């Protein structure tokens, strides 16, 4: 029995054991393997399943990264990196995927996975801490004490109980934040462009302006898009009692003038590539302003969960072809193959999403027993999976060669 896979027109064959391996959760299902697992090369950057894993605790310079990445099948990243010819999947060990050209990756048959949920609690807890710190001006008091200044004041220092928190973007982080804020006695209002079910006693506002006018504290939790860039400017600041993550220069002016009572910022339009000197912002040295280096999700718990979630998705994709939770592929999966079935192989195909390709694939498989199949598309790329009964190596090679011969084929893999 052989394992086969290809990221182009070449078929790689590696002898493997005919013996079935067993899923630990269900001894009646067969665990698929795309290669001899020792041939899989994975590059992990910035802090296993029998694969060849190269691990780096820090980001690499561009020249070194290009050299390291050229022969790998999977890469785990935080920042952007070039894409090698053999690459099958990219794991973004974070929430965002801005560091990856998703459409280009899809066009090359490269699936991209991230971890959109794992650090939601960590970020929400940091925001709660910042709200309390701002309400009591603790950042300024701490700095003054370190400078030897005793400045015991109560003016413009407040409890957060009974105050209104406005959340812009009521997603995974926003909802967690709302729950925590309500438990501290805050009133929660939120605005989102999508219809969302409110949690607890929170309520939505019809417009962003309405939220800004009512809230004592405002927290933004939106993705970086052309629509959200600088979504809080001078006009919006004039409506606010307090603000978070708006246009930084306008925010600086509002803080310096005293219109806003304080701000806490963790994400910036431009961020240094490495720790150390080099950070600059018009918000530096503004009164009652907390600046943190994008550490909202930087907790041991969040990083552990992110690592597990992304690594699990990558391993499952390589081993079974499942694209559940992929960012740039349609989400497809098939139920496991019974452990007693040693004649079934799984065909995994990525192709251009144009009319007629699925018909060509089904015509190729028409002479075989197809146990189950699924197909879906996302944008210009379509994804296809099928479990097919075969009699020998020759039939596997024939199926592989005919499907890869389709003009619109991007990548075809055969899993055992």
From TrEMBL:
<dbReference type="InterPro" id="IPR036291">
    <property type="entry name" value="NAD(P)-bd_dom_sf"/>
</dbReference>
<dbReference type="InterPro" id="IPR029752">
    <property type="entry name" value="D-isomer_DH_CS1"/>
</dbReference>
<dbReference type="InterPro" id="IPR050857">
    <property type="entry name" value="D-2-hydroxyacid_DH"/>
</dbReference>
<dbReference type="GO" id="GO:0006564">
    <property type="term" value="P:L-serine biosynthetic process"/>
</dbReference>
<feature type="domain" description="ACT">
    <location>
        <begin position="346"/>
        <end position="416"/>
    </location>
</feature>
<dbReference type="Pfam" id="PF02826">
    <property type="entry name" value="2-Hacid_dh_C"/>
</dbReference>
<comment type="similarity">
    <text>Belongs to the D-isomer specific 2-hydroxyacid dehydrogenase family.</text>
</comment>
<keyword id="KW-0028">Amino-acid biosynthesis</keyword>
<dbReference type="InterPro" id="IPR006140">
    <property type="entry name" value="D-isomer_DH_NAD-bd"/>
</dbReference>
<keyword id="KW-0718">Serine biosynthesis</keyword>
<keyword id="KW-0560">Oxidoreductase</keyword>
<protein>
    <recommendedName>
        <fullName>phosphoglycerate dehydrogenase</fullName>
        <ecNumber>1.1.1.95</ecNumber>
    </recommendedName>
</protein>
<dbReference type="GO" id="GO:0047545">
    <property type="term" value="F:(S)-2-hydroxyglutarate dehydrogenase activity"/>
</dbReference>
<dbReference type="InterPro" id="IPR045865">
    <property type="entry name" value="ACT-like_dom_sf"/>
</dbReference>
<dbReference type="GO" id="GO:0051287">
    <property type="term" value="F:NAD binding"/>
</dbReference>
<dbReference type="InterPro" id="IPR006139">
    <property type="entry name" value="D-isomer_2_OHA_DH_cat_dom"/>
</dbReference>
<dbReference type="Pfam" id="PF00389">
    <property type="entry name" value="2-Hacid_dh"/>
</dbReference>
<comment type="pathway">
    <text>Amino-acid biosynthesis; L-serine biosynthesis; L-serine from 3-phospho-D-glycerate: step 1/3.</text>
</comment>
<dbReference type="GO" id="GO:0004617">
    <property type="term" value="F:phosphoglycerate dehydrogenase activity"/>
</dbReference>
<keyword id="KW-0520">NAD</keyword>
<dbReference type="InterPro" id="IPR002912">
    <property type="entry name" value="ACT_dom"/>
</dbReference>
<dbReference type="InterPro" id="IPR029753">
    <property type="entry name" value="D-isomer_DH_CS"/>
</dbReference>
